[in-house]
Each structure stands twice: as structure tokens, then as C-alpha cells.
Amino acid sequence: MNDSWQISMDIPETLNFAIFVGYALGILPEKVLKDNDKAWPEKKFTIKDSYQLEEIRVSWGKWWTLLLQARQDRSTPRLKRPHTEGITSDKFKQLCEEIWPDFYKWWNMPAGGHIAMMSYTTMGRKEIRTLIREFEEQVKRPVQPFSLKIDLVYAGLEDVVEVSSNYAVMSINPPPYYNTGWWSKKISEIG
Q1: In the predicted model, what is the mean pLDDT of residues 130-157?
Q2: Distances in whole angstroms, Cα of residue 178 to Cα of each of 130, 140, 168
Q3: Residue 164: strand pairing partners
Q4: Interval 54-74: pLDDT, tens
Q5: Domain total for the chain?
């Protein structure tokens, strides 16, 4: 292993809660969910008023951006559960608080939620090292020193969300290391 680079993966409760809320409220696209995840979460909320639905969609987007910034900024204090700080819409905040118990139950399942996702933080290290080695052989030099932080979410992302050059968010489905095109491109950019 080369000490000049580091890739760390984490499974943040905050981002996974936001994705869970998005699906519970029906404001994230169904096409991103795999067939076996369509029943996730179990309890769905229906918002019939289109104006209110749009307000909630906008509030979710602002909240998602705030959560990403907080994850990128390591000096940001840990948010209190249910992670609704910074939400300005009272209706959206209330909905998040109603959804929180269902998320908490799923997140803390003995064989699901956070526990089931943990294996993805170490899975594929060999494959990523191989891609780095291939890059080094191609350019005939060691990769430049870098540190890359990857946050993993259960569902909801069709593509990798690159928040900055050293921070990205990706879904565990498919497993992160399957996306060899993205990894090769990223290693070329930072290497």
C-alpha cells in the first residue's frame, strides 16, 4: 500500500436520513431505486397540495445541500437527531420529525440499515488499489498524494455526487467499487 494516498468511506446517518425522508415523501425519483428497494421506506406520506409539495421539494434540496456542506466541513459539530437544524420550513421540519422514528428503526435493525451497510466501507479496496496501480503504470510514476472521502447512502443516487475534489457521495447499489469508470476518471484527475 502506498502511504501517499488515502480513501475513507463512511455511512453517515444524516445523509441516509435525508434520502429516507425524500423517499417517504415521494420527492425523489423512483427510477433511482432498485426493484427490491421500492418498498423502502415502508411508510409513505402523501402530499396532495402541489404548492406544498413544491415547497417541501425545495426545502429538501436546501437541507440536502446543508447536510453535504456539513459533511465536507469536518469542523462542523455533529447535528442533533433527527438532524433538522437549518430547516426553515415548519411543515417540512414537522414531516422530518414524524419520519424519524421509522428511519431510526430501520437504521438500527440488527441485520439491516447501518449494520448491513458497514461492509461497503471496506469492500472493493483491492479493486481500487488495482486501478491506482494501473494508473501508476500508465503514467510511469507514483500517484500524487491525495485524500478522498466518500460517503455512502443506501439509495437515491443514480450517479456519484462530487461535492468537491476530495469529497463525494455515492449509493451502495451497485457497490461503490463497481463504478470503475468513475474511479479511473477520479484517479486520473487527482493522480
Answers
A1: 89
A2: 13, 25, 15
A3: 167
A4: 899 999 999 999 999 988 887
A5: 1
